[in-house]
Write a structure and sequence with these properties.
Elements lengths: L3 H8 L3 H8 L9 H14 L6 H5 L5 E6 L11 H14 L4 E6 H4 L2 H7 L5 E7 L4 H10 L3 E4 L8 E3 L2 H14 L5 E5 L11 H12 L9 E3 L4 H14 L7 E4 L2 H13 L9 E3 L16 E3 L2 H17 L7 E3 L3 E3 L12
Parallel strand pairs: 1-2, 1-3, 3-4, 4-5, 5-11, 6-7, 6-8, 8-9
Antiparallel strand pairs: 10-12
Amino acid sequence: MPTLKDIAERVGVSISTVSRVLADESGRAINSKIKQQIWDTARDLGYPLKTAAQESQPVAKGIGCVVSTMQDRHYHPYFSVIFDGIEKELSRSGHKIAFTYTQEDLKRPEILRQVTDANQVEGIIVVEGIESKLYSHLKKHIKHIVGVDVSDPSIPTISYDRVEAARIAVKHLIDQGHRDILFIGGTGLSGKFEREKRYRGYKLALEQAGLTSQPHHILNAEWEPDKAYRLVLQYVDEHLGQLPTAIFAASDIMAMAAMRAISEKGYRTPHDFAIVGFDDNEPSRYTVPPLSTIHIPTYEIGIVAARTILQCIQSPYPLPIKILLPFEPIFRQSSAYQIPQA
């Protein structure tokens, strides 16, 4: 069965835009041409749409999804795969996604009212942290909430050990003989690297090896690949003669951007710079050389989140549960170079 993601990719818009148009909640924010393309694409793909008769019937309740950010992309290699798992699992159980909104969407009063309308929504899945004021408002008005990578012990959550996953990635580089390792990432809601779990894993691996993290080895790309690319170009220019030998990027797309930057500067991967990413997005296996990374079960996270919200609605657990899914290191050619011992 086609999904919202399939429509979004075909039209070239975000999943939340498709969700709003098909739910007839788009208002004036989306031009009529894009709306028509979304409806036409939905029909072409065979996406189930409401008929006039169905419109006159009471609205069936669904499950809402709220995500911290999609970073202005119609397809995000991490979040979109989670939504795909959620949507397909809900569909298998006879349910549907009522909407998919970002944190920015919720700042519009009309959107926030729809999200908290108990007559339309049975529960919501919150994917990663959102601002505390918005989150408190959701908890006040929504009975059933499941979090994906949300730090709230009062609700069921699905996650994986990001600190340990990052530690293993950096330990791999250390085991290859690297001692100067660049970190590329972002800070998230807190604005502090010390609160970011992948950075904490990076720092922990260095400490366990008797190494010290250097402030000038930390690049804040704000999770944007374009900024990661520009920062690495600038870093190479400013640190000639004292360059690190390895890079750990907190996402695959930032790792790929770094690979391009060092290639353009005339350096080789992995002989001059070994690189490890994070997530195991599908394109990572097709880079040159193939990217070492940590496989995160994003699709399975979506499936488990969908099953958990349905369980909470139908037969709630006696206490909020925390489900920790496994990750898997996948070390490919981008880090397959052993530093010669002096």
